[in-house]
Amino acid sequence: MTVKILALDTATENCSVALLTDDGIYFRSEVAPRDHTKKILPMVDDVLKEAGLSLNDLDALAFGRGPGSFTGVRIGIGIAQGLAFGADLPMIGISTLEAMAQGVYRKHGESAVATAIDARMSEIYWGRFLRQEDGSWLAQDAECVISPALVVEKSIDDENTWFTAGTGWEAYSDLLTQLPFRREISSIVYPDAQDIVSLAKIELLKGNTVSVEEASPVYLRDKVTWKKLPGRE
């Protein structure tokens, strides 16, 4: 079965769009931490024009559902909902951690991936995944927000060599180097829409879509620190 899916992600510093068609994947990606709202829609226009398609030609719209930056996740979902609503498309939310695992497979062909995004506040968004025969990823460690020290404390060695992905590995390298399992460094630092769209195809073929109204973020953390402005209580 051939499908056409547009995917976008702004959950981290990377801003990316990908369009899956019969001819392959058209994509744009740029690290632009403060310019997501300026970059994302022109990227959408670019890939649609390159493929010669419109939103109404698509079967679904996928998005990075988090975890990641609170603002970035909200921007991505909000724009995705607007596009999907206008074209009456079902939506597919994909974990940004799983997308990084897929990126490791795409780049290195590896099937055991440990992901860590710097979540600030001395914490990381953490997950470990094993690739399955159908191309999906099985969580070995459930996605969570956790301190690097606690990850080290709770982890045990196993037979796998885990390929690392995400900004957390560099941000907390002094702690994460103490992990007991074998690790190799990958080139994947951020999630990318071309990996989101590949995972979204699997979900679409399984019938795992939601309506625009049901599309929701996964923050993992229910609080955020911010500096109070003068006069704000």
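That was protein one. Protein two is written in the same sequence-then-structure order:
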Amino acid sequence: MDLYVDPVCPFAWLAFRWLLDEVEPQRELDLHVRLMSLAVLNEGREGHTPEADKGDDSAWRPVRVGHALAEQRGEQVIRDFVRAFGTRFHDRELRGRDRVLREVLSELDAEDLYAAADSDERDDTVRRVHAEGMEPVGNDVGTPVLHVDGVAFFGPVLGAVPRGQDALDMFDGAVRLARFPAFYELKRSRSQGISFG
């Protein structure tokens, strides 16, 4: 199972917490967290400010640093990176992505990788991993993307983290849907705000 997330996406953060905090401790999962990129996803999309125009708040910066960390320490560190970033940016609502990034690198004792945020050295890797996540679901979706037993889908898009049995029931349902080759989409309009509590 592969969960593709961009650290700046609140829906990716909620899916991350659902799977890692609520489901993984109670299910035997071979779960890998991978980085997709909202910067890549939104390139050329109408209504989106180009990431290059966002300076220190560019969505390129966190995923570049995440890939640099993974190069240095292995894939498992992506979990730590996403958790540290999401806790600050989403749960604590700390603003200024650059500030968040610096604090995360300090927590992970990886300040030496700060320069990776503004280097395009890993952009081919960012694009390749992003494409691996998106290819099976198409480009008209967002983040998160979940791959289960060779089937991929966008979401689930959550407004809050399901807890306990609700989290497990939702996971079991998602896996069952994913196993049906003709399953494409479930959707309804968002009627409530996001809760990170």
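The beta strands are 2-5, 32-35, 145-148, 151-154. Keep this in mind for the problem set.
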